[in-house]
Amino acid sequence: MAKYAGKDFTFSYSTNGGTDYTAIDQIVDIDLDGGDTDFEDVTTHDSANDTEEVVPTVKRPGTVTVNLIHDPDSAAHDYIAKNNAALVKWQLEYTDTGITIDGVVFDGYVGPLSLSISHSGAVTASFTVRKTGADVVS
């Protein structure tokens, strides 16, 4: 079973369809919810043992939530702050000494950048990407 160190992941966005990616810096953690599938009830009067029957319908691709230490001088943080609801290509990849080993690419909408300002701590930020369409896994 493969094991990965979290520090070796990068999360990037592309505004030109995946030709060039900009890495998001100062990331603390990334949460991928995995999505969901809707089900439709197809139970009828002749369903066996009066038991509900369902069939899968629409797959919901889910969201990615990113927590980071906010840097107002970061071009990536500035892009996220100024481009709420923009549809861009995203890439999450595992790297080891600069060689991409494993990753996923998907389209998603930029969520708003939310700041958290603590009296005695770092200024942190978070945003959520709403995925659309299927992932491309490498």
What would your notes on this structure say?
By secondary structure, this protein is mainly beta. It is built from one helix and ten strands, in the order E-E-E-E-E-E-H-E-E-E-E. The strands form two sheets. Strands 1, 2, 3, 6, 7, 8, 9 and 10 form an eight-stranded antiparallel β-sheet that branches. Strands 4-5 form a two-stranded antiparallel ribbon. A hairpin with a 7-residue loop joins strand 9 and strand 10. The longest helix is centred in the middle third of the chain and has 8 residues. It starts with 8 loop residues before the first strand and ends with a strand.
Helices and strands, with pairings:
Layout: E1 9-14, E2 22-23, E3 27-32, E4 36-41, E5 54-60, E6 63-69, H1 75-82, E7 87-96, E8 99-110, E9 114-116, E10 124-137
Antiparallel strand pairs: 1-2, 1-7, 3-6, 4-5, 6-10, 7-8, 8-10, 9-10
Biggest β-sheet description: 8 strands, antiparallel
Number of alpha- plus pi-helical segments: 1
- Protein structure class: mainly beta
What is the CA–CA distance across the termini?
Answer: 17 Å
Percent strand equals: over 45%
Reading the helices and strands in chain order gives: EEEEEEHEEEE
Average pLDDT rating: 89
Rg measurement, Å: 19 Å
**What is the molecular shape?**
elongated
| Strand elements, count | 10
Low-confidence stretches: none
The residue fraction in helices comes out at under 10%
Key words describing this protein structure:
mainly beta, 1 helix, single chain, 138 residues
Write a compact overview of the structure shown.
This protein is mainly beta and 138 residues long. The protein has one helix and ten strands, in the order E-E-E-E-E-E-H-E-E-E-E.
